[in-house]
Amino acid sequence: MSIEAHKCNASGCKGFIVFENADFNISNPPTVNGMYEFHNPVCTECGKEYKVVPHYVVISFDEQGDLEEVEPACITEWERREKVRNLENETDPHEKIRKYIQLHRYTYSVADILSGYLQHKQGAYVSYTMKDCIEQLRPELERLIN
Fold first, then answer.
1. Could you tell me which residues are beta bridge partners of residue 3?
2. What is the tens place of the pLDDT at every residue in 104-120?
């Protein structure tokens, strides 16, 4: 299995076009509407449709119907973006704090962040990374202590 990712080219979109390319038959590509097309993936965020064609690029059509080549992306970029989206969509404050810690590869626990927040509120010094967590997660921390 080989998974490929490309950055969406829709204005303001941070999504990716992700598809498996292991089974593409380069010597006999399928034809769809008179055009060679291996696959028609959509953006993970905005849903824009794309075409994977034999030239081994991902293309889309602009508003005038002209072809545009889509910028390739590393699969780890897509994985990181999925983690960010997952964090942004999280509603449970404890889970959101845990995911933030994981995303930024901090070694804190949720309890460490809560403790640091309470100390910071009392005027105590906190580390740079703890301060980052506190600043980014203040609403969630407030929800947990109330």
1. 20
2. 999 999 999 999 999 99
Provide the total of helices (H) and of strands (E) in the chain, helices listed first: 4, 8
Say how many Å lie between the first and final Cα of the chain, rounded. Answer: 48
- SS3 for 118-141 is HHHHCCCCCCHHHHHHHHHHHHHH
CA distance linking residue 21 with residue 18, whole number of Å: 10
* Cβ atoms of 106 and 133 closer than 8 Å: yes
For the record, the structure tokens of 69 come out as 């080549």
pTM (2 d.p.)? 0.63
Residue range 38-78, pLDDT digits in tens: 888 999 999 999 988 876 678 898 889 888 888 888 889 99
- As given in the structure block, the two tokens for residue 33 are 């509407």
CB 24 within 8 A of CB 37: no
